[in-house]
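Hey team,

Filing this mostly as a record. A colleague (T.K.) asked me to run one chain through the structure pipeline before their review meeting, and I want the input and output archived in the tracker in case anyone asks later how it was produced. No errors, nothing strange. Just documentation.

Input sequence:
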Amino acid sequence: MTTTIDGADELAAPLDLLLTTSAVGVGRRMLPNTSWTRLALSLAKQPRTVADQVGSLGHELMTIARGRSDRAPAAGDRRFDDPGWRDNPLFKRSMQAYLATNDTVDALFTDAHLDWRDTEWMRFVIDNVMEGLAPSNNPMLNPTAWKALVDTGGRSAVRGLRHFLADMSARPHIPAMVEPDAFTLGENVATTPGSVVFRTELFELIQYRPQTERVRTVPLLMVPPVINKFYVMDIAPGRSMIEYFLREGQQVFAISWRNPTVAQRDLGLDAYGQAIIDALDVVERITGSDRTHLQGSCSGGIIAAMTAAHLTATEQAHRLAGLTLMVTVLDQSRSGFAAAAMDEETANIAIALSARKGYLDGRTLAEVFAWLRPNDLVWRYWVNNYLQGRAPKPFDVLFWNADTTRMTAALHRDMVLMGLHNCLATPNQVNMLGTPVDLSQITVDTYIVAGIADHISPWQACYRSARLLGSKDLQFVLSSSGHIAALVNPPANAKSSYRIGAADPDDPAEWLDSATAQQGSWWPNFVAWLAERSGRDTDAPEALGTAQLPPLDPAPGSYVLEH
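Output structure:
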């Protein structure tokens, strides 16, 4: 789950592109377009380079056919771990031929020197085609498939076919990463004790039961993504961010968004921003504090930042003790280009499609996320579920990932258009609750978290986003791992590490060179940062809620159970 700093790459898909692709279909991104043409023209202008690469490949394929090649998979390529890939001449040659061809295609793609927009588009196409062609995905060429067939007397093929038919019969039309009944909410995931203390058409507010005798006066309000359920922050005992914060004496509240239906189709950015303000009002009433730490992640972080800008513009910035944004991209540009590899026409088609339904189906978004990392999230389970006929191993984060939610048509429209035009990067280009959003006016102390291997919110984009804010006390933390593992990063994880420093340099690479490297999780550092801004300690409340805001349901609430 970890990736080195040197291996980091900014090539990732921005939110508006993900939301658009989800609406129009991932297959559309595989169809030929002008990016294909520019790739072909670029290579056509380099006939000698192409001839050299193809000639070298032909020579190596002859060497492989003679059994004299020493080509081997890269370290960490687990597709070819089985000894059969080395011991069986047919399997070995098929693997080596594939690896040689893949390297040649990659070299030709690099030699094309496309701009970022074309590179992003064509990299998706080429990666998916080449990874799909791997002999490990072929039931006739994968030694583990043959072993399973022999060991089970053919039953693995029957089970594999049954798994395939079940997965392809409903969205997201990809191999299941986890069994739907592998975990139960409230029993082995999302188990931290608490109560729903407020409910609206759009969200439930959960207050968590303190786990220390004394707590910090200033509470923390957590705003989850709007395209996933909140409990990734309370994933399991010992790995729950909420549980950890409580044990360190922090008062914690969390928003649980409703899984919207057609009835909520018209609720857009303003409605979600107002929901955060409504939650702040309730937190203040329950705790008696006039300040609250506001924490948002991914798309929830975008709305939290816009809400913070609204509070600042309306002279309510004093209500925020601090702002924390985790894996959140506010500036979706890269080297002067719009990050989204799409045009207005495609965006309008996507918006029209979700408007017709009343929502964007979260299962289609899950399909897009999977094809961004096909080896890890598609073909790995293709081999396990279909070729070997096995059930996927239970993993709580993948269970959460498969527990998808819908997005209202209005919010989908607002997010796509805002990202398409990169509105947050320039002051006053988009409104929140009638107030023009100017992120540079947000001066509250800020803590930003990014993941070094994040394929959805690249850390460089998170860093540029941090630079949009006007805070004079802004800490930028670069955690090991990717989009989710960077957050689900408990202190017990011995492999974790992070870098931390003020977001002063303009260039992310310059910040990387100057930031302090730390072993372990960033959670203890964040808790200390909260403590410095949370006032004196006070006795923990004996009961949750108040007489006017009594507990409604035990955590994790009822909205999280809706499908």
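Quick notes for T.K.: Residues 30 and 125 are 6 Å apart (CA to CA). The first helix runs from residue 15 to 24.
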